[in-house]
Amino acid sequence: MQNRIKNTLFRKTDKRKQDGQVEDLNIHGARLELLGDSVGSVGVIVAALIIYLTDYRLVDPIISVGLAIFMIPRTWSIIKKSMNILMEGTPSNLSYEDIQKAILQIRGVTGIFELHIWCITSGMNALSAHVVVMDTECSNRILQDINAVLEKRFKISHTTIQIEGYHPAKDSKTQEY
Ligand SMILES: [Zn+2]
Fold it and tell me: What tens digit of pLDDT does each residue of 81-92 get?
């Protein structure tokens, strides 16, 4: 049973990775737990065998510490990703500059301000921005174009975009993340 769960998890993870998408944090965590359990079980059996055969009892703490050292770097990446979500940081797989450029390239767009990109949960990103346009009568078309680009190229589907004919230049280039 545990094997079947493990196989499913591994297969799912591999598939996601091929798609170039971010691995879901929950699956990453579950996979790590299975890895820790499996390696831990093997460690206990090996330690028991060595103690049984040689009576060298120090092997038990040595293997425990070894396991801990083995798991720390694997846990670290989960801690880093979780922290990024909690701190609402820019998702590591997205480039702030690329998104800014992509929006500026849309016909009718003359400026972009207050661009914020953050991670709601792993695999789900949100964006908000003020977009200055040449002709506010084209707002609807431009908004659709922006959302299409964000969804197709950057997989961002949660957006809040304010279309403006003018934006005070003072907070340009402040690049708030
Ligand atoms: Zn504005």
Answer: 888 777 777 777
Q: What angle do the packed helices 25-54 and 59-86 form, to 10 degrees?
A: 170
DSSP label at 24? P
Taking the centre of ligand 1 as the mean of its atom positions, its distance from the CA of residue 129, in whole angstroms, is: 8
CA of 158 to the centre of ligand 1 (A): 19
- Rounded to the nearest angstrom, the distance between the alpha carbon of 50 and the centre of ligand 1 is 69
The residue among 36, 165, 70 whose CA lies nearest residue 113 is: 165
- Quick: pLDDT tens for 12-56: 444 444 444 456 788 888 888 899 889 999 999 999 999 999 988
Instruction: Please give the distance, rounded to the nearest whole angstrom, from the Cα atom of residue 160 to the centre of ligand 1.
Output: 12
CA of 130 to the centre of ligand 1 (A): 5
Amino acid at 30: A
Domain with residues 96-171, CATH architecture = 2-Layer Sandwich (3.30)
Q: What's the pLDDT score for residue 75?
A: 86
